[in-house]
């Protein structure tokens, strides 16, 4: 009988069959059903990092549902077992049959009093209730009526069989079930997390490659680089192709823009060069006209000729500045040779002294300072720095010119003790058409606003740089590399 009782308490095949039917044939268990459920909610393109967390959550929910359903089934099976055993005893006319050791059996009348001659355990189970299972103390009780009312022992009294058992065995089974489910959830969640991480890493690998490529393009600002295309033909691959096509179009647009700018720079350089020839002719004719009208022309004619000559000289200077800048923008390098920066600076200072306009010059030239460059451009650079110091400082200002060697480079400095640069203009001052305190300012002494822009262009063309600071006045420093022959001479010495 114990084996029969146990048969009613184990997980029977019917519920499992129902689970399989609900999952469909070919299902792979509860985990597969949960992943299918995740697929229903998330679709085929759920984010992988969210999906493995979502799957782990549903494993726990599914385990709770399975545990609750199994617990309810075990309780129902236990009650069915009680009613079945009570009915079997009643069918045997209340005779003793093999029962579980913990079972309580009583044959009673309608009020629960024991019937003589039948088993009646000394535990009062109350009046019989054959329609349901009731709880008495720690026992669940089922009752069934004995059908033979003419039994010689019971006589005409209606008798019932009460069959009771404690539910502790079911509770123990349910506790073990929850323990196993908890362990399964922990292991399943861990496995789902590991699988999710593996899937996420594999799925994110193309995204990581695209991110690295995009970061590299942003760093180098080179749209000609390509975005790696994933092997799989999915949305990520489509995104990579779209980005790559966008970069190709940007690269093409940039190439076209660069070509246009290059053509414009070359045009400006060529136009400036071509304008110098007629301007030179105009200047020569105006100088000849001024000389020929010096004696016999009236004052108005002489003033007109002098004004035209001044304007032509200013235009010639402006076109020369534009030509130099246009050549620098177009990457056209003039003829280079070894030249002495100290001698070039001395010549520029000597050329400017007659028009110093009350300024004092202090020269500290430690020569020779050989550099590899274009002597005319370097002369223009020094001359512009000195003219800038004279133009933007009052009379009586001291302007210092220093040329020396510093390590493996040449150092040229033009400093004055005037009012200095406007605050915050240390970098802007090298822009084109910038005058005095800002781009909109006009110097009282004129000027094109290209002088310091030419200084920076010449310095950079010769592999150097120019900086401006305020140090008791304006200070401009130019650093250029020494000539290679001079460096080799120093190294051999």
Structure characterization notes:
The chain is α+β, with helices and mostly antiparallel strands and 493 residues long. It folds into three domains: 172 residues, no CATH class; 77 residues, Helix Hairpins, CATH 1.10.287.130; 160 residues, Histidine kinase-like ATPase, C-terminal domain (Heat Shock Protein 90), CATH 3.30.565.10. It contains eleven helices and eleven strands. The strands form three sheets. A five-stranded mixed beta sheet has the order 6-8-9-11-10, with helices on one face. Strands 1-4-3-2 form a four-stranded antiparallel beta sheet. A two-stranded antiparallel sheet has the order 5-7. Helix 4 runs antiparallel to helix 5, helix 7 packs parallel to helix 10 and helix 8 crosses helix 9. It starts with a helix and ends with a helix. The N terminus and C terminus are likely disordered.
